[in-house]
Amino acid sequence: MGSLDCDVLVIGGGIVGLSTAHALSLLAPGTRVVVLEKEPGPARHQTGRNSGVIHSGIYYRPGSLKARFAVRGASEMVKFCSEHGIRHEVTGKLIVATERSELPRLHALIQRGRENGIPVRELGPAQISEYEPEVQGLAAIHVGTTGIVDYGQVAERLAEASGAQVLYGERVELISRRPSAVAVRTSSGLVVRAGALVNCAGLQCDRVARLAGDDPGMRIIPFRGEYYDLARPWLVRGLVYPVPDPAFPFLGVHLTRGIGGGVHVGPNAVPALAREGYGWSVVRPREIAAELAWPGTWAIARRHWRYGAGEIHRSLSKRAFTEAVRRLLPAATEADLHPAPAGVRAQAVLRDGTLVDDFLIREAPRTVHVLNAPSPAATASLPIGREVARRALAALRA
After folding, report:
1. In order of start, what are the domains of the chain with their CATH numbers?
2. Which terminus in the chain has less CB density within 10 A, N or C?
């Protein structure tokens, strides 16, 4: 058993945790930072298992943390990638209405985008074909500031640039908080004492909050997003999204050309049977029991069971999934869709069943908890990291 002292201890080696460590090195040079990550490397969960999109911020309520951080974060992410030699591309994207009932929501998105300071262009059917010849729709928005990148590479570069000591394979098992310091013990027996603690544990963030003795007031309910690779990637030139349903914090099945040239199709959003349940075969009864004990889980089920049933149907039926794709890309067939690695979204749910839509950051003595950081957290990771770092430095001074 060893011990280690530092000024700020960050739990979680995803992009938000590593951005926080990087921001600390810029805001307070000389701050001793340690990052603990339970996996053997960085970005093994949400950061490394998404569509790789640099989001523009068009979807998010004006004035919200999501809107402010996404708009700022998109430009900062492009700059960071340029400075550090990380391959990326500003591609733009289409948001396409395929039914008349979606047109009012599309027009609302245009207004929201303009309020957020995002340049948008309205398109008719002929103009859609100019951008995407195989995509059909009644109307669309072109958002020019959207891009693509490999966030796993970004996370690796943040870890290097931060100067922090990043320790992998260290699962946090015990947290002891005193007036003068916070002590953490890991699965290997390592003890780390710090002046301030930052919880960026993603899928495990509520568990870590409880280990610290804090009631987070929410629970993480995991939703798995399943993807396919498009066998004929030339059918899609860039990024194509449906008009999202504002009742849900999910964007729907979309088409994303990745930085390597392939096209990702998905994701859906189905309840996962484990925090890190990347397939139906991964079942952890204790985690399921904990979710069912949370009142918000049952409130979600009552409120959104029809939506959930449709998502599960598309998960179990490739034909149904293909039909969802064909709404945007009529030429797609079942044979075009090849299974790709899934991701799991750490969705914060309140006791009354509210799906937390915005970023959720809460503070306790000597501690900062990041309790909800869904998409566009990767896009917005640099400004989020600065915000969390400022709060951690304030906790350290206090």
Report:
1. 1-89+147-217+357-398 (3.50.50.60)
2. N
